[in-house]
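Supplementary Data S3. Sequence and structure tokens for construct A.
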Amino acid sequence: MDQDTGWSDYEAGATLGGEGSQGGIVVRDEGYRGNLRLTYEADEERSFHSITCGIAGWLRHPRFFYTAEEATRAFEAMKPALEELGAKLSEGGPRSTADGQAAGPLLADFVVRFS
């Protein structure tokens, strides 16, 4: 667990070494306050590195990289941005149509920034 930020191994590390949603092997999987998640998958034989970020009920966004170094830097850079976005959204997803509509530009900005 990262004591400074509150991020910790997702499911106590049980997902590490398994196949991820993008077809790579999960090499890093961290969660924050039960509703934010970053999963890093890799397959060195294919020069494949991906990070999928999620906010429960709101967002699941994969990103792809050529190198482990790029992916690792992006993983760390996304943490504070994901925390900031998550703090602006209702926990678990939109509570009304208006809630969902208000979140649209916030989600779009995040996806554009981290594409």
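Construct B, processed identically:
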Amino acid sequence: MNLTERYCAAWNETDAEARAKAVAELWTEDGTYTDPLADVSGHAAIAAVIEGAQGMFPGLVFTPGEVHDAHHNIARFTWHLGPEGGEPVAVGFDVVQLAEDGRIRAVLGFLDKVPAA
């Protein structure tokens, strides 16, 4: 499983204990997550942001988008949020900085498409 797939899997994990484990495996202890709606650091805060997104969009799933590119310790990728196999209601573009061990040190997220209010 590549980075984008592992990232989406963490965002889709609904079991709190399994989600905490996925976040710990994916992010460094001092890892950060920043997007227009959140700016947090640490495993517990990142897991809470994921739980909050799941609460806002129950039953929807994150899937890798069309873009995935990496060089040095930086990667960028798109993701979709929508019903399984359906049209996405949200699309994002994330840039991540990786630590030497391959875990995420920082995520800078952008929302390219958001649901109409």
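Strands lie at 27-35, 38-41, 61-71, 74-82, 90-98, 104-113. Residues 43-56 form the longest helix (14 residues).
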